[in-house]
Amino acid sequence: MLVFFVLTRQINYIHQLLQSRLFGDESTLQDMYKCLHSFCQSLQLEVLHSQAQRLIRERWGEHVMIDKYTPGQLLTLAYWRTQSFNIGKPEIYSLSIGIDTNDTAKPLQINHEPPLSLEEANDVNRAIRCDRLSIERLLVETILMRSKVKLKELQTLLEKELTNIKTIIEGTPAILYMPIIEPCSQSEYLTITIDMQTGTYQPYIAHAGEYEHPWSHDWSHGYGYSTGHVW
């Protein structure tokens, strides 16, 4: 767990600032709230930025990059970076956490690129709260959702081109199952997953060789998320 200690000088600054507002106009309380809210959001972004640096250093390496960090305003992480080199369909994948400039009273806002649907974004964004700050949890949940979306796109393409084939997508992480013969036993299905770190397709057939299935590790439940709290 990452614990962030607020520096004494920061507390003193806030105390002096709030004292200076005590003798203001009728909006004093509102101004004090805005001041404290902005200060807490800045600390949250600083915690998330620190977590991201550690995440890159210890777990994800070159697969994740801090694309942009503006203290007190915005943090943007890029992932699935090799997808930007695709000749046919280059794509940039990123998630941004920042302050809503139109309404600073709102909690930190999360934006995804390319955009997720409203339902998908709401499911993913629940991974982070002010009392449970974990950039890793948000990143993993985002990638799990992206993987499912990408497999659905492939499923649509396959069923369009191969009209006599019925594919299914199940599980978390998502796995696409495709029969390759008729009749087809469970061990003879072609299964396709998405590599968590690179975003590439991973086809697998049980009889093709005796090696570990790419999804033998449960990323959604067994992953040790690093969390942080602002004290």
Task: Present the secondary structure layout.
Layout: E1 2-4, H1 8-21, H2 28-60, E2 65-70, E3 74-79, E4 93-98, E5 109-113, H3 118-125, H4 135-161, E6 168-170, E7 175-178, E8 190-194, E9 201-205, E10 228-230
Parallel strand pairs: 1-10
Antiparallel strand pairs: 2-3, 3-4, 4-5, 6-7, 7-8, 8-9
Summarize the structure.
The protein is an alpha+beta fold. It has helices spanning 8-21, 28-60, 118-125, 135-161; strands at 2-4, 65-70, 74-79, 93-98, 109-113, 168-170, 175-178, 190-194, 201-205, 228-230.
Helix/strand structural class: alpha+beta
Whole-number total of structural domains? 2
Strand content: 15-25%
Rg calc: 22 Å
Low-pLDDT sequence parts: 1-5, 210-223
Oligomer: single chain
The number of strands is 10
Q: Ends: how far apart?
A: 13 Å
Globular, elongated, flat, extended or rod-shaped: what is the shape?
elongated
Q: Assign a percent range to the helix content.
A: 25-40%
Mean pLDDT: 82
Order of helices and strands: EHHEEEEHHEEEEE
Q: What's the helix count?
A: 4
Report the major sheet.
Answer: 4 strands, antiparallel
The strand order across the widest sheet is 2-3-4-5
